[in-house]
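Annex B.
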Amino acid sequence: MASEITYAEVKFKDTLLPVEAKAPPEKSTPQREPCKPKLWVPWLVSALLLLLCVALIITLIGMLHKQSPKAYKLPATFPEWRCALGTPGSKEGVWTCCPMGWKPFRANCYYLSSDSMSWDESEKNCTGMGSHLVVINTQAEQDFLLSWTKDIFSSRRSYFIGLSAQEVEAQWRWVDQTPYNETTKFWIPGEPSSPKKEKCTSFQVHSGTQARQNWNDVPCSISLNRICEAAAAFI
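C-type lectin domain family 4 member D: predicted structure tokens.
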């Protein structure tokens, strides 16, 4: 018996054939313009550099001020002055003036005291007159002071000068911050002998001797005469 073939009609409803997938269109990246430097940046850098330069200049001025000699000027309150025409190296027509009782030498005026006191009191006394304890910078100045003091006093005398040893360093310093010059010093041979105990300096005058070396270290508390110094007035 022949088998029967059954046919079934099959219908696919709403069936779509596969479609080839398409990639989404690439988005175009906008080109960036090159960065331009901001106009205020160079001004800021310049301002910072200027401030740095100003700070350095102020620091240097401060350092130089500390190291440079202090300025002392005689007040105009002295009742009498003595003036001489010209000083070594000065221009013509310039008068160099010192108060009465003060001795002129080059561009400075010098005062010898007749009373005695400690080193600290001596410096205060000189400062009160617009001067300071003498600072001896040259051999000519040393010779001038030695000759002057010998002419005035025939006996032995000692004067405080503006040289003292520091507390910690035991180094010698002048009162006006002038650097202590090892090549311009006039210590008595063997002196200074004890700068840790005898921190101040005396200028010793001996009649009948011409010894230029006459500095001696002494205790600051003893009472001695003093030599004051200040810049002369010019008119």
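Residues 40-67 form the longest helix (28 residues). The domain at 108-234 is CATH 3.10.100.10 (Mannose-Binding Protein A; Chain A). Further annotation is deferred to the next reporting cycle.
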